Amino acid sequence: MTAGAIRPGPVELHDGSVVVPAHLAGAVRRILVRDLAQHVRANGGAPTQDVRQLFYALARAEHQHDQAAEGFATETTPAAPPIVEISTDDAAALLECSAQHVRRLCRSRRLMARRVGQRAWLIDPASLDAYRHRRTQ
Question: Running DSSP on this structure, what letter comes out for residue 16?
Answer without folding.
Answer: S
